[in-house]
Here is the input.
Amino acid sequence: MHEIVVERLGGRAIAGRSHVGVVASGNLEVLCEPAAAPRTRITVRTTVNGFDAIWRAVLERFLERHAVAADIEVNDFGATPAMVTLRLEQALEAADA
Amino acid sequence: MNSVRTPVSFAEATPRERLRALVDDFVEFLDPFARVSSPHLAAHGLVAQRDDGVVVGRGRLAGSTVGAVAIDGRFLGGSIGEVGGAKIAATLEAAPGGALIAFDTGGIRLQEANLGILAIAEICDAIVALRARAPVVAVIAGRVGCYGGMSLAASLCSHIVMTEGARLGLNGPDVVEQEAGPDEMDARDRPAIWRLTGGARRVAQGHADALAPDDCAALAMAVRAAFGALSQHLERLSTTRLRASFDAALGGEP
Amino acid sequence: MTRGEHWVRTLLGDAAVAAADGVPSVRVADGTLDGAAWRAVAVVPNPVARFPRARGGELGLDEGLALADAVRGAPPDAAILAIVDVPGQAFGRREEAAGLQLALAAAVNAYATERRAGRPIFALVVGKAISGAFLAHGLQAGWIGALRDPGVEVHVMPAASVARVTRATPDEVARVATIVPATARDIVTFARFGAIDALFDVHDPLAPSSAERAAIVRALVDARERGLGTRAPRERLATDAARRTRAPALDVRDRIARAWQS
Here is the structure.
């Protein structure tokens, strides 16, 4: 079990919090909450070790597009990068709604 | 005026969608943001889901305030651990007007064995206690079905509604095959397994009380009907009736 | 003679042992301890049981029903003592087809309803206590004692199946059991969770001395006098042990109790 934390400055407020997904094989759950500080912090817990570089690439790409003030928690059970990106986008969309 | 409604699969719905379909005014207790999840899974290299695979809360059903429980069969097979088990027991113990429990579970979570079995003992007792004063309706309509220690809990409820696609049994086919050999049970023979333990058969045997289609609205109707009907558990658990059915079961293929 | 059979006789005497309901694998003995009525119930092997997968002392179809009837049919003033020594559940096609879950649920139902109606229910674990069988025969008791002995174990699934289901090797499963108490199988670790009220040292579980027997009888009589036999399973959470080892469960319960009130 492995934890990865990525943080980037970001000041755009989100409307509320959101929760998407499920910790099933090949899947992940994402919890998204507004943060007081102007930065996005993404904390990932994953069952699979050894993919730090890929995780950081996926997360950085997401953060480049969404500079929000939020705490995002990811609980991953071996999802693909495409699935991770999808869930992050879903979570943000739901939080903005 | 007739309207054609598209069926919405209950089996494909999430636990929260299931509860919102079955009860009104659902309010969740200890949602994922409460972050009350299992502290035991990291040692097994597993990531904990924030609701521990169990969604609980309260809702309204046929005019009563009920405890509402839905087990998430997608997280570790819907298995019951310390936190999820406590969520279920605590919800049932204080429910004023009865309860609705959507079972989608393989039973005790192996990674939390001792804590899981203790929790299920508490859940069984909570059902017996609540059942004495208000309806406790079990819905078995998910993909995992209802197995292991939780099959005992479901069997204690005052009413059980099942779908054809769901199964109810004590030992899953994999475990029976592992313990008794493939001649006893072929875990890959899915049609045979559903013939033995699927909803249609269980309702025909009287192990469950009502069969409903895999549709949220139809299940909601079946649950409301069950809630207002005479309790079925006395008949279902009658040792006289069961002894006669076991006598008949002897002698091979049912 | 298995431990279960042995302890029924040890505690309530030879002469009282009789089969329940024509099911020789469920032994029932009515007697007295310190002048009060008790009924001991145990599941034992029956090599010629009509369901072949339940011949080794497992809790099968017939056994579940016989247990339920033995508990309900006990003399009105008798406390029940469940003697627990069950090597496993009956794993079989006929069992699943006929509805083993209902046979065991009938036993759970009998124990729980009788206890809630005021009949003291006790359990003494003298051998293995497995999963559904332990839920059906033992875990609905208000007070549970156990022998402190390597042959006394609590399992939720046979080890080979655990390995397969969790995709680990049997060695890994055994190793994890030494670091995760919730997965340990020995009774001493299980007792740390607060569900075992007393552990008894017995030199030879198949030949207890009269002093060893007396200690257990004294504990049972005392527990009955103190009204411990009618406690609900949730009351185990109030023990000191549970406060230490079941804190997450206690926290959840506290928060949900408050959520119901608001």
